[in-house]
Amino acid sequence: MAADVHAITLISRAAFEVDDYERIVHILHLRLSKFDEVNWRGSYKALVLLEHLLTHGPQRIAEEFESDQDFITDMANFSYVDDKGFDWGSSVKKKAERVIELLEDRVYLKEERARARKLTFGIKGFGSFSQNVSSTDGTNSHAVLRSNSLLFGDHHHHHDVELESNLLASHEYSNLLATNKRMADDNLKGWSTTYRSHGYAMEEDHPFWDKEHQTRVSLLSSV
């Protein structure tokens, strides 16, 4: 049930666009609210994505998910060990506790966002940011279309199949997956030539980033 790192990266980039932002947060709100001891897998994967969005996505994400803290707190109390002896409860608990800390402590959140930027731009070849996201060989498109493994996974629990099937078939989720490839190709436009040439994209160069003495209009502020 490992997360697709490349898919997470594409989704976090798409979150800077108004329409995709709305689709992403809608799905995450829904998944977190559906958490229980039977249907926990989708909620856990939504939590994994939320953690990444908090440190790599739009700043508004923290405010957006303050209302979900009760659901996330419930996840921190989850207990489950599978038939192979793996303690999923512990994994869910640790992830939930980290997300709660990011939501509640804005100083810590700011530090983690700065740390994420430093790691992303300070290490050549870091993760999927070093990949040629503008390639046209179809590889990225195939990877993104498989990104349902991020939120829903390839190994469905029999109690969770109906809910997951409904969400996978939703018009909103289909649109999100279909547009991720386009977003990966397009959202480098407008960023500095220096960082674009290395496959990087600084948050400060993003059209929605507000800088002192040079404020850029954020479309997300109108959502």
From TrEMBL:
GO BP terms, alphabetized: endocytosis
GO MF annotation terms: clathrin binding; phospholipid binding
Recorded coiled-coil stretches: none
Source domain of life: Eukaryota
PROSITE patterns for the chain: ENTH (PS50942)
UniProt name for this protein: Clathrin interactor EPSIN 3
Localization (cell): Cytoplasmic vesicle, Clathrin-coated vesicle; Golgi apparatus
High-level lineage: Eukaryota, Viridiplantae, Streptophyta, Embryophyta, Tracheophyta
Native species: Sesamum radiatum (Black benniseed)
Stored InterPro entries: ENTH, ENTH_VHS
